[in-house]
Specification:
Layout: E1 3-5, H1 12-15, H2 26-32, H3 41-44, E2 50-53, H4 65-72, E3 77-80, H5 85-93, E4 98-100, E5 113-116, E6 121-124, E7 129-132, H6 138-145, H7 149-154
Parallel strand pairs: 1-2, 2-3, 3-4
Antiparallel strand pairs: 5-6, 6-7
C-alpha cells in the first residue's frame, strides 16, 4: 500500500471542497478528494493505498462527505497523530478504519506500508521499520468489518458483540 502523506490540520474543506458537497455520488466524491490541495491524488491513488497525516486530521465541518470521499477514492486506512472527533466517528460509521500514531511522522509520502488491522502493526517496507499503533476497539472493528454502521446493524449489530 502506498502512502499519501499530509500535514497537520487537514480540514474537511481540503478533503472535499464545499462546492462539491452537493452530490452524494460516492464515485464522484472519490474523484474530487483533495482536488484543490493535491490535484494528483484523484488520478494517482490506488485501491488499498493509505493516508498518513499529522495532528487534527478531519477538522472543520461535520459533513460525512469527506470520509466517504476518502474511502471511495480507494484509501484502505488513515493513520494520523490525532483526528477531529466527529471525523473519527463518521469514518468508523462508513467503515473507514483510522489509527492514531504519535510516530506518523516516521512514515513518508510514497513509502510502501502494510497494516495488520488486528495487532496494530504497521510495517514500513521502504524503511524497514515496524510501528505499533493501538488497534480499534473490538466493537469498532466489527463496524468497520461490516462496511459501516448501517450494515453492522442490519447484520444483528450489538447482538453479535
Amino acid at each position: 500500500m502506498k502512502v499519501w502523506k499530509f500535514g497537520d490540520d487537514i480540514n474537511t474543506d481540503v478533503i472535499t471542497p464545499g462546492r462539491y458537497t452537493v452530490t452524494t455520488d460516492k464515485k464522484r466524491l472519490g474523484e474530487i478528494a483533495f482536488i484543490e490541495y493535491r490535484p494528483e491524488f484523484g488520478k494517482g491513488v490506488k485501491e488499498g493505498d493509505i493516508i498518513v497525516a499529522g495532528n487534527n486530521f478531519g477538522c472543520g465541518s461535520s459533513r460525512e462527505h469527506s470520509p466517504v470521499a476518502i474511502k471511495a477514492a480507494g484509501i484502505s486506512a488513515v493513520i494520523a497523530k490525532s483526528f477531529a472527533r466527529i471525523f473519527f466517528r463518521n469514518s468508523i460509521n462508513i467503515g473507514l478504519p483510522l489509527f492514531v500514531s504519535e510516530d506518523a511522522d516516521k512514515i513518508d509520502d510514497g513509502d510502501e506500508v502494510e497494516i495488520d488491522f488486528k495487532t496494530g502493526e504497521i510495517s514500513d517496507k521502504t524503511k524497514g521499520i515496524v510501528l505499533k499503533v493501538k488497534p480499534l476497539p473490538e466493537f469498532m472493528q466489527k463496524i468497520v468489518d461490516k462496511g459501516g454502521l448501517v450494515e453492522f446493524l442490519r447484520s444483528g449489530g450489538y447482538d453479535n458483540v
